[in-house]
Amino acid sequence: MSDEILTLKEVADYLKLAEKTAYRLAAEGKLPGFKVGGSWRFKKEDVLQWIEEQKGSKGKKGK
Predict the structure, then answer these.
(1) For the chain, first and last CA: distance in Å?
(2) Is the per-residue pLDDT at 63 higher than 50?
(3) What angle do CA 50, 51, 52 make, to 5 degrees?
(4) Strands 34-36, 39-43: pairing kind
(5) Contact, 9 vs 21, CB < 8 A?
(6) 30 versus 56: which is more confidently predicted?
(7) Around Cβ 15, how many Cβ atoms within 10 Å?
(8) Residue 27: inside a domain, yes or no?
(9) Confidence at residue 20, expressed as pLDDT on a 0 to 100 scale
(10) CA–CA gap between residue 49 and residue 28 (Å, rounded)
């Protein structure tokens, strides 16, 4: 089990997203993260699990 903590920039780079997009997803509760002193932080294992959940939900929404 890895307790590696990532910053918003690191998560955005890892997911190949703009930082604004990663921030919005986190603020909306769609991307699992938490704030430390006003800055977003993410557990790498939570991000990896979120990716797997996104792969499983593809095509299930009507959008």
Answers:
(1) 35
(2) no
(3) 90
(4) antiparallel
(5) no
(6) 30
(7) 16
(8) yes
(9) 98
(10) 18
CATH number for position 38: 1.10.1660.10
Structural domains in the chain (count): 1
Residue the block writes with tokens 């890895």: 2
pLDDT in tens, 12-47: 999 999 999 999 999 999 999 999 999 999 999 999
Question: DSSP states of the chain as a string?
Answer: ----EEEHHHHHHHHT--HHHHHHHHHTTSS--EEETTEEEEEHHHHHHHHHHHHHHTT-S--
Domain span including residue 24: 5-57
Look at residue 41 in the predicted model and tell me its pLDDT.
98
CA dist 24 and 43 (Å) reads 17
**Other Cβ atoms closer than 10 A to 9:** 11
